[in-house]
Design a protein that fits this description.
Length: 345
């Protein structure tokens, strides 16, 4: 299945990319770098560095807009580390970006695989909104779109009500949901975008013990990460991918710990990647989604009209239930063997 991944890499975005490249049923045809967790130039460095680490050639990486549609960029180095990958260091690479930007890359990929392409967005919706301006037929060209973003009847992680990806570029998110509402409507409910918000993704918590299972599946067991370790203790794993994932996850664990969530980390974006390939991992409820753009306290909030108060067509399938154990089993069974091959490809 051809997949186009739009990411703001980011610790969990990196895990999502690892999952896609580890999946035999996925053919990643392009990566878009979107400004979000870190500035877009750093996102591109991270995406190119990950491809170098994975030993994957011939996947174009396209850089997107440096700023959201109409507000300055806000980044999240506190969550993802100064360069976006926690304590991890990626290999140097002489790989380069495409001469065209991320919005054009979206459109080109959709036109190349009409009716087949799986679109995945795990960052702000800036570049998808720009792509929809370039090609209004984009919703009909895609086979499926999966968006990690929002929080439905659930608290935010950036403001009391706003989730990070939507908070960074609320205008872009509003534009994307408006386009889908107009493009599809109730007559083609299967083509509505799948939207996974914090209400769903916060059920998927990576822990030191699950990370240990991944390292073992990669044939690279190492000391289990612990809340008692010195902060920033480097991974001793022999496998280069496991080393990067452990060093990235340690930072993410520490961030979640400091937030009072425990020594764990929510894998928002890997769940979205897994759902792009297999939507049956999640149960959905469709609704009309819009984004609050003017509220003085609630800007960036995703509002789902479950009961038709607005009288507007549904424009999203919202994830409402997931089996985290099934997700982690699949994650380990794919990324473990993939990691074994890293350094040998
Ligand atoms: C989202 O925000 C980012 O920090 C993560 O990468 C994820 O995409 C969760 O709110
Ligand atoms: Ca992300």
């Amino acid at each position: 299945m051809p997949v186009f991944a739009d990411v703001d890499t980011g610790v969990d975005d990196a895990m999502a990319l690892a999952y896609l490249f580890a999946s035999p049923d996925a053919h990643v045809v392009g990566i878009a770098s979107t400004a979000g967790n870190v500035p877009v130039a750093q996102v591109s460095i991270n995406n190119l560095g990950l491809l170098e680490l994975f030993g994957i050639d011939d996947v174009p990486v396209s850089e997107g807009a440096p700023v959201p549609l109409s507000i300055p960029l806000r980044t999240a180095e506190d969550t993802h580390g100064p360069e976006g990958l926690g304590y991890a260091r990626l290999p140097e690479t002489d790989r380069s970006l495409t001469p065209y930007d991320a919005a054009h890359a979206w459109v080109a990929a959709a036109r190349e695989y009409p009716g087949e392409l799986l679109g995945l967005v795990t960052g702000p919706l800036t570049n998808l909104a720009l792509a929809l301006r370039l090609e209004p037929a984009l919703p009909r060209l895609l086979r499926r779109l999966v968006i990690m973003g929002g929080a439905f009847d659930y608290r935010g992680n950036t403001t009391p009500v706003a989730e990070w990806n939507t908070h960074v570029d609320p205008e872009a998110a509003a534009e994307v949901f408006a386009v889908w509402g107009a493009a599809w409507g109730l007559s083609t409910p299967t083509h509505l975008p799948i939207v996974l918000g914090l209400n769903l993704t916060e059920n998927v918590a990576m822990t030191p013990s699950i990370l240990g299972r991944l390292a073992a599946a990669a044939g690279s067991p190492s000391a289990q990460l612990s809340v008692l370790d010195d902060r920033g203790t480097p991974s001793a794993a022999a496998n280069p991918l496991i080393r990067v994932l452990e060093d990235a996850m340690r930072f993410y664990f520490e961030f979640h710990f400091d937030q009072g969530e425990g020594y764990l980390a929510h894998l928002h974006d890997p769940l979205a990647a897994a759902v792009a390939l297999d939507p049956d991992l999640v149960r959905y409820q469709s609704a009309t989604v819009d984004v609050e753009l003017t509220g003085t306290l609630t800007r960036g909030m995703t509002v789902a009209d479950w009961r038709g108060h607005w009288g507007r067509e549904h424009n999203a399938h919202i994830g409402v239930e997931v089996d985290p154990a099934a997700f982690f089993e699949r994650f380990i069974e794919r990324v473990g063997p993939f990691a074994r091959g890293v350094g040998h490809r």
